[in-house]
Amino acid sequence: MAELAAAQPSGGLAARGGADTLVALSAGNSTTCVTTAQGAGYCWGQLGRHPGSVYRILSADGRPARLRSTSPGWFTMCAQAVDGDALCDPSLTGASLDSAGKWIPRASCNYRVCVLPLPNRGAMPEGPLRAVDAGWMHSCALALDGTAYCWGHNAQGQLGNGKWAADSTGSSGEIEKVPTAVATEYRFRALSAGENTTCGISEPGAAIFCWGYGRSGQTGDSAVMHGCSGKKPFHSTTCSNAVPVRVGLEEPSTSSTVRFAQVSVGMRLACAVSVAGEAYCWGANSRCALGRCRVGNSPLAHKIALSGRAAEIGAGYWHACARTVDRRIFCWGENSGGQLGSLVSANAGADGLPPDYRDTTDSEAHRNAYDTDPCFLGGRCSPAPVEVSPGRRWSALAVGSYHSCALDDADGNVYCWGGSDSSAIGRGAKLVPCVNRSREHRDVRCQASPVRVPGLPRLVAHVLPAAPRRLAAKREPIAAHVTVSRREVRVVFPRDDGTTWGWSGLADPEYSPWYDWGIGNNGMDGPRWIRLLAGRGNDSARAFSSLDALVAAGQASLCTPGMMARCEEKNVTALVQERQVVLVLRDSAAIARLFGLRPAKVSVWASRPSEERRYPPDSVAVEYIEPRIADPDVKTLADAKASQRRYLASISSIRRSIATSDHIYSESFWVAVGDSTSVGVEELKCTYDVCTSETLSVPDSLWTLDDSTIAGLRAAAPSQDEFTSAGSSARVVGRRTGRTTLRIALSTLPSDTAPSDVPPERVLARDVVVTQPITRIELFPRVQTLRVDETIELRVRVGDAEGRWHENPPARVTVGRGAQSYIMFATSPVRVRFDKPGVQTIVAQFGALADTLTLRVAPAP
Hints:
Layout: H1 2-6, H2 10-15, E1 20-28, E2 31-36, E3 41-44, E4 55-56, E5 67-72, E6 77-81, E7 86-88, E8 116-117, E9 129-134, E10 138-143, E11 148-153, E12 175-181, E13 187-193, E14 197-203, E15 208-213, E16 240-246, E17 260-265, E18 269-274, E19 279-283, E20 298-303, E21 310-315, E22 319-324, E23 329-334, H3 364-367, H4 369-372, E24 381-387, E25 394-399, E26 403-408, E27 414-418, H5 422-425, E28 432-434, E29 444-446, E30 451-452, E31 459-460, E32 481-484, E33 489-495, E34 501-503, E35 514-523, E36 526-535, E37 542-544, H6 547-553, E38 555-560, E39 566-568, E40 572-577, E41 580-585, H7 588-595, E42 601-607, E43 618-624, H8 634-651, E44 652-660, E45 668-672, E46 676-687, E47 690-696, E48 703-705, E49 711-715, H9 722-725, E50 730-734, E51 738-745, E52 763-771, E53 774-780, E54 785-787, E55 791-800, E56 805-807, E57 812-817, E58 820-825, E59 830-833, E60 838-846, E61 849-858
Parallel strand pairs: 1-31, 32-43, 45-52, 54-61
Antiparallel strand pairs: 1-2, 2-3, 3-4, 5-6, 6-7, 7-8, 9-10, 10-11, 11-12, 13-14, 14-15, 15-16, 17-18, 18-19, 19-20, 21-22, 22-23, 23-24, 25-26, 26-27, 27-30, 28-29, 32-33, 33-41, 34-37, 35-36, 35-42, 36-38, 38-39, 40-41, 42-43, 44-46, 46-47, 46-50, 48-51, 49-50, 51-52, 53-55, 55-56, 55-59, ...
């Protein structure tokens, strides 16, 4: 009966001093969870002996677990402990089985109300993780270095390890109980697991990559989809992708420039929020879930016409909701169960109800309803975002399959709405008739208005806003005072009247709890910062007795920003005067270079762990005092111009290459006899860690082949594929087996004179290998066991349709290595060595073909 006692959470917390702080609100299918700053996790919905009641999530010993976040899936539950470790209910991990596979009874683990450590971490590193998320019947975790690991069912490739599980246990496939690395060279800053689909946000780049079930387009279109038939994205059979593929935008000109802050995967739908606060969705468009009607599914992300900038988003089955930076919630898509927070419908008649299709199954109107009824054969829906309870403000949002929940700003209670199952919105919630008048979407009893979930403690919003950083609400500018002379720069920040300083040990590891004071200026040699940082070096909590103690623990320095940052503590000091933080730089040479152009203003910032960083930073006027810096003369201006160009060149690069639609960059590309591939000139421009790639438009007449009997050239048709429409200019056609070289000599391009560490290439060449169609791929030798620090040499070969083997193809080989995974190309032997014991996965991929080698790395003798 442990879970019954744990199902009374509100009394203890409320009696000890009022509201607790909400850290995370999450939902999956018909289950919702909250996690508080005291490490408590509470869930309600489809779990426990009494669905709908609020249950405290327990640990293996039957005591309340101490959690940082909780993630309910459809048939599983996972969480992250306060120390950052991954915890899951035992259904997918075998945590309740002994070494012989026999079930170990645990009374506290009945009905998915407990979470246990993973019994086998596989290649996943020890120590804290960045995030843990549960999907339909699989889960994924994100390491601190951005490497993704997944486990559970894999019939649709939702683990992203380059393979599909044998379908020996029904439609779900076999269970992979050991976390395996996602087969990609990308790192991720965020993950979301849904119905047999997983998506992540890459870093750097902040692009969306998805893998797994993609029949409705929710993984994005790709040449490596598996088990498909029919024209994409309208597949007539199951279609999936076992490796990450980038999701493009419907506006192709913006695909490389939009950066994302959050992603959410639902059932047949996925959505994301850009750092600019724009909402996007892709996948199934049933019930107008993509914010528009009478069009099909889309593998390309479609922008939602949202009223205001989005702070967070959640995808359900065929509906989605977004919370804006002004704390309003809007929902769109299916509304047959009131999941939009009202009974609005795009196809309502004069009586406010949808057309009555119940008695017209065989009528012409029914057969043509796709063309005449925006909600597809009756039932409620809305392509336009509908505001939930206008006038109310919400601090957090979670979206399930057919319901949603949010934290009310005013009273600190969690409210839910939607669905035809009262357990999803709280035990005892009153359901009312929701008339759909449709044979396909039957009348149900639902609750289309937010109702309070009983049994939860009163909560206040987490101190970290959910909005992307640059979407912070407008605040008063920082009233810092900056004085500059030839001998000294002095920055005096506003008075700090706080009584406590420090940070909690429960903070999300993705968020850095730093105190940060500084000014920035684009000086004669490029941008420089005078800065004081004081923050957490690990996950432990820390408190300071005074502001003086905090500043003394910090580091004051003069820095160049970005990935190539260099900081010098010499001649920079920090102190506290009359409760004001003061930064002082005494270095005449550095001051001359930093303020030699006599800027009128500088950027300034001051942030605490409980605040988001202001973007853009404030600016304050500079007061120049004696002995004054002289006004810049012609020589100084010329020096600054030359120095800044050298600085830009040192942090910038422009690289050009001959690219193909497979985006694999090796010395050669392969094409089959009778097949063709589009080619173009790709230009990669990088500044710091921000890179943009563009396929240049060049005349097809510039291309040449050394031997036109092996391969031929023809002009690219813009409509053939996304790569050609982006600007590629030719197609290489395989004619007979052999090897030749593709060349192009470029004329003058606009970027030829741009700052770059080396001049951009003007003459490009790439080998072309023509083979018979490739039908198989193999990693060899098939080693099964390896010792720590022992090196093996692996090769990849591919077989063609005539039975010949070819070695050293441009195959992508992804190697897991402890806390990291890395990518190599098999154009030469791949040397592999591991420095930690465990299970490692090596995946070779050539087009749609993949081969996986699993190694057990044993300790060194």
